[in-house]
Structure formats: C-alpha cells, structure tokens
Design a protein that fits this description.
It is a single chain. The protein has 19 helices and 15 strands. The protein has an eight-stranded mixed sheet with strand order 2-9-8-7-6-3-4-5. A three-stranded antiparallel sheet has the order 11-15-14. Helices cover 39% and strands 12% of the residues. α6 runs parallel beside α18 and α16 runs parallel beside α19.
Length: 496
C-alpha cells in the first residue's frame, strides 16, 4: 500500500513541477546520487520504494515534504499547489522532450549500462560484450549457400514485395509450420517482418486498448513489456520458477487473470533463462487460454537451438482451437541477426479473431513490406542441411561453450545457476547477502568499470529482485575462460 501512495504522490509532484523521469535522472547525476532509468520506472509504477538517500533527493528536487512524499502524512497534496507552468523567456530555447508514452518503457539490453560501456570504448578501453545475443562478432557466420543465394537475387529485390512477404518465403515458412505440426496454416496466415521485434510491436499495437492487460513472464525478453506499455496496455508479470527449471508457475498465471486480460505471452525456448518448456506445461497454459478466451503469443526464435537431445514443441500444435501467433526467424539459428528477417504464423480459431486480423493487416500494409533481400533467402535457409545442428551437440561450439560457462560459474562461491537447455544465455543467481547487493544495476556497472566486462542485470528482464544477471556465452571457450576468471576475481573482494 505504501508503495502505491508513494508512486501516486511522486507522479503528482512531478506533474506540478513539470518534470519527467529523465529530468530527475539528469539532476541525480549532478549530485552523484545513483538513480537509473530502471529505478525511476519501478518507483513510478509503485513496484518498489526508494531508500532514504534517494527519497530525500526526490523530495528536494520536487520541492515537497519528504514525509508527504513517502506517505507518512495524510495530506492529499504537496505544500506547493499553485505552481504555475514554466515560463519561457524570449531568450530561452524551449526544450524538446520525448513523449510521455515512453516514461515507463525500458529496454536495458541496450540501456544506460551499455551507454557507459560505449563511453569507455571511446576512451580506448576494450570491453568484452556479453550483453547481447549477436552471433557475428564472435565468429559465427551465415551458411555460404545463404550468402550466395542472396547475392544472386539482389537485382530481383529492388522493389517492394507483398506486404506480408514474398511468396517463396511464406511458402517455406508454411512448410516449416507443417513440420512443427501447427495446424490450419495457409500462406495468407504468414507475415514476414524486419526481425521478430517489429512483428511483436505490430501485434500488440493492433490488439491492446488503454488499460488492457497482457500476461508476460518474469524474467522476460524486455521488448514484450516495452511494446505492451507503448501500446497503452498493462503488462502483468507471471512468475517463472527457478526451483522448477524456470518453468512458468501455472497457479501464478491463474491468479493474475482479470476481466481486462486479453492475451498471454510465452517465450519458449526462454530468453534469458534458456529454459525449454515440456508438453505438460504448454498444455496447462493452453487450457488457461481456452478457459478465459486469451490470445496466445509464442516467441520461438530459439526453437532450433535446443540441446541435450530435447525437442521443442510449439504450443500452437497443442491448441488448434485457440487463436495463436507464433514468432520465429533466422537471426539466431542462421547467425544473420543483421539481416533482420523474422516471421509470425497465425493459427487456431481465426474466425474469432477476424477483426483483430484486420488490424494486423492494416499495420502490416502501413509499413509496406519487410526487408526483401532478406526474405529472398528464407527458402534456402529453411531447406536442406541445417548447419546450426553442428553447434548444439557435443564438440559443437555452442554446446561446449555452455558446458564450460555453466561448470565454471557455478564453482564461484555465491553463484548458482539452472543449466540452460536452449539458446545461448545463462541467468545466474547471486547471493545478495554474501555480497551485500541492493542494486543489480550497480553490480554490473561496477563489474564493467573494474573488469571491462559488460553484462545485463536481472531487472533489465523485469525480474524484481537484485539477485540475477544475464550472460551471453557466444564467445569461444578461451575468451569465456578469461571472462569467468575476471568475474571470480571481482567477486572475491566485491561488496556493495
């Protein structure tokens, strides 16, 4: 309750002073107060309450009584209620500010910590970037046949394609859907995109009205939460249970459903945990969606990066009666993240979703089409030998790098981890009592400055506690060995 009172009063005071989150963050930098974007977002949304130092700073910056701001007093308004709008003199250049729609939008995978790393690089420092799943810088390259076919077809890709995509690309994706046992899919149910990211934004914009709720896992890939917020919706996070291989907590999902819930998101295989969901979990989620009439969004971009002999199951294959949108692409499996080619497959009860599909078509038409040269190689990439299979078996690069990092990290006192079964990420847990950690963002910033290693803190994936970080294990083993040794040394003396 106190968090909500604080959040409401914080927003009131910010409105009275005509200050945004970014204004307060800039002021904090001048006073050496550690206040990041993720902190402010948590405060404004009422998820967390600031420590005393930050509370005092906010009260001073907003000219309000600290007891009123914290909710200790029962007054309804701050002392200064007659603040006039800021007057701009003839000699003052007005500031152009970003839309308030972005105030609660976060994407820390490329956020403030990355900006700090870029500043360090500009000063000549070498940074090992373990923050983003970008295969190319670590020596992973597209299959030769893919590059050859794109070169041969470039002159045929100078114009727009159909807004949904090239026939050849969608035909290959349709056949891939058949392999995945997704029923009732025609070429007209397939849309290509400039990566899956564009299609996520498009789908949520077409679905959500102001205040509509969408269930999103925590931890999540933060684009889902960001796009839902930007679309005017309210992301409601359901727990994935670390003690159960990071599987979604079915009872928690049930408890989060209201009459405003429109859809549920699953990320399988999961980013950032590397978890792979079994059939029983998927069936339980499908049952919940069926009972409450929810759309299922299934992010399956890592479905071809599954290890240990496990098999990926598309939830759409288990839910022929539920409207599902399944996302995938070539960025990860074919090591061509820069080509920006993804797709989505509409399946299930399309009759019930007629109006929504019209909205998807409208937004798809508005962006004209996705990257045509990248579309031209979908058929080549999905057919024939899949070179990614060589990476995910014993002696393959991704498999061996996972083995090394998992074994090495879990030997460090104070670090534990659930072994990932897919993708190329690890989401280790830190013993926050041992290291006296109260801010995971500060932890990764301190590591960056001390050891020149860039990670992403757990809150960057909408994980509430300051006890996790994500590490990308794409570099070769010898590079990972050096990185883990530096992390181990750092933790041998680190205290917050």
């Amino acid at each position: 309750m106190i968090n909500k009172i604080f959040a409401q009063r914080l927003k009131t005071a910010m409105g009275n002073k005509n200050k945004r989150q970014s204004d307060l963050i800039r002021e904090a930098l001048k006073t050496e107060i550690k206040l990041g974007k993720s902190h402010m977002s948590q405060y404004v949304s009422g998820k967390t309450f600031p420590r005393e130092e930050i509370l005092n700073f906010l009260a001073n910056a907003l000219d309000v009584d600290v007891d009123w701001l914290s909710g200790k007093t029962t007054e309804n308004i701050p002392k200064e209620t007659n603040l006039k709008p800021m007057q701009i003199s003839a000699n003052t250049e007005p500031e152009i500010k970003k839309s308030i729609k972005l105030d609660n939008v976060l994407y820390d995978v490329r956020g403030p910590i990355v900006e700090e790393a870029n500043k360090m690089e500009s000063l000549g420092m070498q940074i090992l970037k373990l923050n983003i799943g970008n295969p190319a810088p670590f020596g992973f390259h597209a299959p030769d046949e893919v590059i050859y076919d794109m070169q041969r077809q470039l002159t045929e890709c100078e114009g727009y394609s159909n807004s949904k995509g090239l026939f050849s690309a969608r035909k290959a994706i349709m056949q891939y859907a058949q392999i995945k046992k997704i029923p009732n899919v025609s070429i007209e149910d397939i849309y290509t995109g400039n990566g899956v990211s564009e299609l996520i934004n498009l789908c949520l914009s077409a679905l959500l009205d102001m205040g509509d709720e969408i269930l999103v896992p925590t931890p999540d890939y933060p684009l889902w939460t960001a796009c839902a917020t930007l679309a005017g919706g309210k992301p409601v996070h359901y727990m994935c249970d670390e003690e159960s291989d990071w599987y979604p907590d079915i009872e928690d999902i049930k408890s989060k459903i209201t009459n405003k819930t429109k859809a549920i998101v699953i990320i399988n295989p999961n980013n950032p945990t590397g978890s792979l969901y079994p059939k029983e979990i998927l069936q339980s989620i499908a049952s919940i969606a069926r009972e409450h009439g929810l759309v299922i969004f299934s992010d399956e971009i890592y479905d071809r990066l599954v290890m240990d002999g496990e098999k990926h199951i598309s939830i759409a294959s288990l839910a022929p009666d539920i409207f599902c949108v399944t996302f995938s692409g070539l960025s990860k499996s074919h090591m061509i993240a820069g080509f920006r080619i993804g797709w989505m497959i509409l399946s299930g009860n399309k009759n019930a979703a007629k109006d929504y599909i019209e909205g998807i078509k409208m937004l798809s038409n508005m962006r004209l089409c996705s990257n045509v040269p990248a579309q031209s190689i979908v058929q080549t990439a999905l057919g024939g030998h899949q070179s990614v299979n060589n990476y995910i078996v014993p002696k393959g690069r991704i498999y061996e790098q996972r083995e090394y990092v998992y074994n090495a990290l879990t030997k460090i006192p104070g670090i534990s981890c659930v072994k990932p079964k897919a993708a190329f990420y690890m989401f280790p847990k830190i013993d926050i009592k041992k290291f006296n950690i109260t801010s995971d963002e500060q932890f990764v910033l301190d590591l960056l400055k001390d050891k020149k290693i860039l990670l992403i803190h757990g809150k960057g994936f909408n994980w509430a506690k300051p006890d996790h970080f994500r590490l990308v294990y794409l570099p070769r083993v010898e590079v990972l060995k050096e990185a883990v040794e530096k992390i181990s040394d750092f933790l041998s003396y680190y205290k917050q």
